[in-house]
Specification:
Length: 117
């Protein structure tokens, strides 16, 4: 069921501390941690603690928590000193989503070209 932690979800396990991560921020509803394969000097993932398969599902089910994720993404960028940054939500395997738990990538610290890859 959406919202409930899933035992087969890597990000659910990170959210409850079962899998280690380099956490940079945590709130009641979100956790932010460094990406293990960074694509920029700043590459932090911000996830809701509640399980939702992607950003669209999160926004539909819990819009306030979706807003929390965005607010935390901005806070991460500010703490990292990234004046310019990108927030990316991949939705679906064809878009590059590999962990099916909603998450925002916060990327900064270098020039980011447009359009992306």
């Amino acid at each position: 069921m959406a919202g409930e932690a899933r035992s087969d979800c890597l990000f659910c396990k990170i959210a409850v501390g079962e899998v280690p991560a380099t956490v940079v921020r945590e709130t009641e509803t979100t956790i932010a941690f460094r990406d293990i394969n960074p694509q920029a000097p700043t590459h932090v993932l911000v996830i809701p603690k509640a399980h939702h398969p992607d950003a669209a599902a999160l926004a539909a089910a819990e819009p306030q928590i979706a807003a929390d994720v965005l607010r935390e993404a901005q806070a991460v960028a500010a703490e990292e000193g990234a004046e310019s940054y990108r927030i990316v939500f991949n939705t679906g395997a064809g878009a590059g989503q590999t962990v099916f738990h909603a998450h925002a990538h916060v990327l900064g610290g270098r020039g980011l070209q447009w359009p992306p890859g």
